[in-house]
Amino acid sequence: MATLPLLSDADLTPEARAVFDDIRATRGSDFINNFWRALAHDPALLAATWDRLKVVMGPGTLDPLVKEMLYIAVSVTNGCSYCVHSHTAAARAKGMTDAQHTEMLAVIAMAAQTNALATATQVPVDAAFDAGAPT
Amino acid sequence: MATLPLLSDADLTPEARAVFDDIRATRGSDFINNFWRALAHDPALLAATWDRLKVVMGPGTLDPLVKEMLYIAVSVTNGCSYCVHSHTAAARAKGMTDAQHTEMLAVIAMAAQTNALATATQVPVDAAFDAGAPT
Amino acid sequence: MATLPLLSDADLTPEARAVFDDIRATRGSDFINNFWRALAHDPALLAATWDRLKVVMGPGTLDPLVKEMLYIAVSVTNGCSYCVHSHTAAARAKGMTDAQHTEMLAVIAMAAQTNALATATQVPVDAAFDAGAPT
Amino acid sequence: MATLPLLSDADLTPEARAVFDDIRATRGSDFINNFWRALAHDPALLAATWDRLKVVMGPGTLDPLVKEMLYIAVSVTNGCSYCVHSHTAAARAKGMTDAQHTEMLAVIAMAAQTNALATATQVPVDAAFDAGAPT
Amino acid sequence: MATLPLLSDADLTPEARAVFDDIRATRGSDFINNFWRALAHDPALLAATWDRLKVVMGPGTLDPLVKEMLYIAVSVTNGCSYCVHSHTAAARAKGMTDAQHTEMLAVIAMAAQTNALATATQVPVDAAFDAGAPT
Amino acid sequence: MATLPLLSDADLTPEARAVFDDIRATRGSDFINNFWRALAHDPALLAATWDRLKVVMGPGTLDPLVKEMLYIAVSVTNGCSYCVHSHTAAARAKGMTDAQHTEMLAVIAMAAQTNALATATQVPVDAAFDAGAPT
Hints:
Shape of chain A: elongated
Number of helices of chain A: 6
Radius of gyration of chain A: 19 Å
Helix content of chain A: 55-70%
CATH architecture of the largest domain in chain A: Up-down Bundle
CATH topology of the largest domain in chain A: AhpD-like
Strand content of chain A: under 5%
Structural class of chain A: mainly alpha
Largest interface: A-B, 70 and 70 residues
CATH class of the largest domain in chain A: Mainly Alpha
Oligomer: homohexamer
């Protein structure tokens, strides 16, 4: 089930097809996952999302695998089933080992736990943690 | 404000004091942040939380700074103000640069955005992402 | 799967049946969706929920379609799969066009993104935004 | 700061005043907390919220203190600072002991942790847990 | 408190200054809120966020006020205090009346409530709601 | 679908087998649900999670059924489908009646609703609720 039909390649507008072409070229794979097939209904939204994703997940100061793990951490916390699946697969493809996978799970679970405790106790932020004084 | 008084060192039970001693020794610092001062009301909860945190955030297959960034990603998504502050400070202390900091923010923001789109479109998980067939 | 059996019309108490009758009359349709068939186990909860929904989503200062879109925005953010499906269908039934649908998705995604950035940076609320001075 | 001014008693419409009177009579206290002073801008919303709260938190099959603790669990998970404070105070007023308080925190933290693990692993629901076959 | 210092106009790089100039021109106001002063640490992130926001919140098929209300609905559900404040102020500036404000609150609250009920009962999505059959 | 294969009994390491043995002995049942079969990939994570769960959900000052209901409240709010199913089944096994079940749903729904209102109005915490003055 979905709230929008998933578009096949034959249904694409030229603008959407250009984005699919770029996804395929960037990833070196013909496979286009369902997420993009839903967004393809709005080529401008599709293009804006893909273009930004390519920049954000592209070369920078953080390792590509670290970025995928950050993505998983957010997706788990948001309870996004699709995203947990797709980014765990992506992290695997980028070399995440079994040991790194379960160690990441332990960190995410620990954070969820202490988040709950900090929120439940409503402890004030220590002054030592402030980095935000106006310059 | 908090839902539990924050305990000063003079208020601790011997069991809680032992945990504070271990926090200080492990971190090489006298500073005990408010989170632990609230949990100190229940020495068993304090000890269980700290002991597990020490294992989870200790040596393993992931870099300590990566673990702090995963912690931040979860805390941001849960909206835990205290945790965002404390783990951003911890990541800074472990060497997170300005560029890594803002690159991490961009990844977290991107994930929040595509999480929302995947949830709003309710696209089915692609079969290619399944890693869970029973063995 | 569900945590409560879904009640068929034959299983209803008179109080629950009266609510189903009102749902059908209000909507001008015989179809009762699964949500109400689960709540029907507790006729008082069913009645309270439906009665309030009818008022809140009924005539007022906001357009009915706008209300459905607000409902979708909350449901997406809460990750409620059932609710995203049912209220997207309701918004479609109230005239939401394809273009409005994807434009709404873009707004929801943008909000998710800047929410994450504001939470991650923990910026203080500008004094200019305060509307809450006691009268 | 707030997004609506908090109304003093002198600012109330007669309908809002009647709700405040009922809150005071029900609680046996003159104190009206800020939540109601914000809702008082819309007497119909104020009345609907209070009337429903009085029913839901009133006599039933669950102990009043258990209901407050459930309320805290939801509020912590939603990250609602105001609600965590107000319902922790309410639970205290209904007799929650220090030991019950911290034991509740441990349960909430445990749930947050295993929620994260279940979501991260995306394990399918066991057939044994299904209670929802249509009757 | 914040996790990044807020930059004053004097601290900006030329790229960040250009974004601030565009914010001021677009809004017809000299006021730059704290959100942008934090993002200004990373001019590329600042520019990407502002450029996309300008498009998404700009002219389209939805009324600008409706877009602000959708933004508020997401921000409330995410528990983003800063965002609730800033977008409520923006909605006010775009003409949201008191009656529209509290009616929106009632819809958001209703959605939160039925989201919880649908998630707690785990009712399956009705086949009638499916819009996602592949074309 | 899952992000990790579910391990059968034949796949377990001795350490994981010992945990499964303890789960079976503690619960007086041969049934091991999928959650543990996923965690079994990392015997240390499996053991730490189970050992802590046994303590937290074991004897204390709160009734075992109350603890399961708190667990449900958190799981619903986090939108964890697996957890809602498993802990509702557990609460049923511990004697939760139909009336208690739906009364709990009403409390959870009420909390979700007023959480949204408190967050949307951003009312300041009343001084009367503060329990956190340093001792």
